[in-house]
């Protein structure tokens, strides 16, 4: 999202003229910039916090030539995301993944699999040889069941041992 996207979204949601929304966004950003320039910390509950971190001078290397370069001390803004924003983003990502999976299932016509995956049951039966016979007969049967019915492309099938 860009600054102009933010201004457009504010215009749509609050039904205000674009010029006024732009002034409002610029005023907010200018206030935040001034506070950081003064060394103040900005905390927006449920969103995150901004602070200035100071770095000391050090000797770096020019990656192209390998020669030593003196790096001056600097102050850089740092953003730390808030707990509530983390949770909201993770919930949205989980919902999006579920919706994407559901859309893919609908597109392919496959029934949704349970959360733990398909259930596979294997049964093996061995008949003991008769005392007078020198051959052994063994029968193995495997049953695969998927909830939701039907099997489609790679979601299960039969397995024979």
Give the number of DSSP strands: 7
Low-confidence stretches: 120-158
The biggest beta sheet, please?
A: 3 strands, antiparallel
H-E string: HHEEEEEHEE
State the share of residues found in helices, binned by percent: 25-40%
By DSSP (H or I, 4+ residues per run), the number of helices equals: 3
Short description:
This protein is of the alpha+beta class and 161 residues long. The protein contains three helices and seven strands.
Describe the protein's architecture and organization.
- The structure is a single chain.
- This protein is α+β, with helices and mostly antiparallel strands and 161 residues long.
- The protein has helices at 3-14, 18-37, 83-108; strands at 42-44, 48-55, 58-61, 68-71, 74-81, 119-126, 138-145.
- A hairpin with a 3-residue loop joins strand 1 and strand 2 (48-55).
- Mean pLDDT is 79; it is low at 120-158.
List keywords for this structure.
extended, three-stranded antiparallel beta sheet, 7 strands, 161 residues, two-stranded antiparallel ribbon, 27% strand, alpha+beta
Per-chain topology:
Elements: H1 3-14, H2 18-37, E1 42-44, E2 48-55, E3 58-61, E4 68-71, E5 74-81, H3 83-108, E6 119-126, E7 138-145
Antiparallel strand pairs: 1-2, 2-5, 3-4, 6-7
């Amino acid at each position: 999202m860009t600054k102009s996207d933010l201004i457009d979204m504010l215009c749509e949601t609050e039904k205000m003229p674009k010029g006024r929304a732009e002034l409002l966004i610029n005023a907010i950003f200018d206030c935040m910039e001034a506070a950081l320039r003064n060394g103040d910390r900005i905390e927006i509950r449920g969103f995150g916090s901004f602070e200035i971190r100071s770095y000391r001078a050090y000797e770096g290397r020019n990656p192209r030539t390998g020669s030593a370069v003196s790096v001056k001390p600097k102050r850089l803004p740092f953003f730390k995301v808030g707990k509530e924003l983390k949770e909201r983003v993770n919930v949205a990502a989980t919902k999006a993944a579920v919706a994407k999976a559901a859309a893919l299932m609908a597109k392919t016509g496959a029934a949704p699999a349970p959360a733990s995956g398909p259930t596979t049951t294997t049964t093996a039966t061995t008949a003991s040889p008769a005392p007078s016979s020198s051959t052994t007969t063994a029968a193995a049967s495997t049953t695969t069941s998927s909830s939701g019915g039907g099997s489609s492309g790679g979601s299960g099938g039969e397995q024979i041992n």
